[in-house]
What we know:
Layout: H1 9-12, H2 16-23, E1 27-32, E2 35-47, E3 75-80, E4 84-90, E5 99-109, H3 111-117, H4 130-137, H5 141-144, E6 155-158, E7 168-171, H6 181-184, E8 189-192
Antiparallel strand pairs: 1-2, 1-6, 2-5, 2-8, 3-4, 4-5, 7-8
Amino acid sequence: MINDGPLxxxxxxxxxxxxxxxxxxxxxxxxxxxxxxxxxxxxxEAYGGTEDSASHAARxxxxxxxxxxxxxxxxxxxxxxxxxxxxxxxxxxxxxxGAVLLRALxxxxxxxxxxxxxxxKNGRNLANGPGKLTQAMGITLAELNRHDICQGKRLWLxxxxxxxxxxxIAGPRIGIPYAExxxxxxxxxxxxxxxxxx
Length: 198
């Protein structure tokens, strides 16, 4: 596997939906000590700024969502249900919030360790949800919220193998019943579907 180094900040300094599409096929890299875990991103979900009622930014600036309002290329990690860490990549530009939630990946390097972190769960269930992904990769709010993912330390993204448009399925985002109907129905959830026949 070629290590091209971390994606640069300019990759993230774009509208969230564009970044969400371009993240499919990229490699998420997590390093702890001597251990290196790598997974290929296969599902993302974009969230816009204050005009997107599904986004945390719609509530205005708060201590929780402050990373979204900061510079792009940083991690926004938050906890839901008091249990699951959710990992987002901050997009757009400072003062203009946007983020992409990583929803699923497939392992490339370190699968045995990922399975152990998931208490033996493997195969399709290893990292096919945002909480499963963070557990498998060891991503936590306490350690990595606001982390600069462009530095190439602890957690970053690499080029990977971008996917063709014909293999991308777009659909509504999940778990946002509080959002306005136009935002609930927006096709901002993107999935890599290798056998798609669009």
